[in-house]
Sequence to fold (427 residues):
Amino acid sequence: MTVTTTIPLRRRQNGTLTSLNRGQQPTALSKLLLLTLLLLPSLEAFIPSRLSSSSTSSSSTSASPFSFLRFRPSLSMSAAQASPKVLCYGEALVDRLGPLGGDPATDLPVDDRLGGAPANVACGLSRLGTPAAFLGRLGEDEIGRQFKKVFQQRHVNTQALQWDPSRPSRIVLVKRDVCGDREFGGFTGDAANSGFADQGVDPLALLPALPSFLPAAEWLLVGTLPLGSALSAEALRAAVRWAGQAGVRLALDINWRPTFWEGHSQPSEGPSAMAQAAIRPLLQQADLIKFAKEEAEWLFDGETDPSSISEALPHKPAVLVTDGGGMLRWTMGGGGRERGRVGEMEAFRVNAVDTTGAGDAFVAGLLHGLVADPSVLEGGGGGGKVEEMVRFACGCGALVCQGAGAIDPQPTVEEVQAFLVEAGREQ
Fold:
């Protein structure tokens, strides 16, 4: 099917439909009308046998330093019952943490923790009170059952979660140095050499969930790992296309992991020309991008300045460049060089147990703030509002570093607020 309607719509007060200018958000009604146009031809083309093989499973605004966090689900509904505001597409897996300074492939004890960047962000958002959905595929195995339990506990919407009857959920081997900093190695768990469940996301099986997701959704979060496998890459591109046509913003966390593309790659290797070509369209469509410093260097010929990277891309996205425990730099909120909209911030100094998932907690904190106050992305509230939002996101990441794994230590809003108040006293 060729879809020619690519311009999101908005409804004027007089009831007419007009094209949506960049910076304006479509209403839920206009999204629903557009989805009807987009999805009905696709639904007619469904292949029943393929679908049957892929099961899918108003707050106060009181003045405070955290007033941008005003969005909360209604007290009459849980985060799972509320329509998701952020859709997180990609991998859910187990991070097998080796002993500090050891190798998880050979040394004991190991610590298995549920993870995967999109799953981490979905859980982090729900923990903060922002309704989120996870879109991906898990094996019908113990890992899948554990994720099902955690998603239920965190009230993550799993309407678009697929189950694979033959391929297992993925286990990633994570080396940690004596300071807790991690390095991702190879995989284990694929005894039959059949591949992993996250590599087999069925694009068609995502379609039934979209009419209920996209009208209320504000963000689609993706990474680059699904691009390493043909079918999951197809599903990623389809999700990005459908979300974009419905006016849902795209958040991209590069999250480069060479072993997802080539199993024998070294963890320090940058993306090949083929990988860069696959990633480039996502860069060109994104409204917000998070890079690690080395990822920016690889993809932009050594450039790490957020403003320069943003200006080089067609959507002029918000750009954040992290540097581990070093300086975070960003540009956000309508361009220009106003203090706060372009800025930098030192990482909080904490006693790190495990840095796995800290970046995902940061992304969850940032998207939580942007859902609460979407105007910040367009410059609303000035640079001070951006700085508050970034500081809150940094607090989320710092708190996750103080526990093992990516999901278990994720904080609530109140825990982040308390941490930031205490950090302010210590400065």
Q: What stands out?
A: Confidence is low (pLDDT under 50) at residues 1-23, 40-80. The longest strand covers residues 132-139. The CA atoms of residues 56 and 161 lie 5 Å apart.
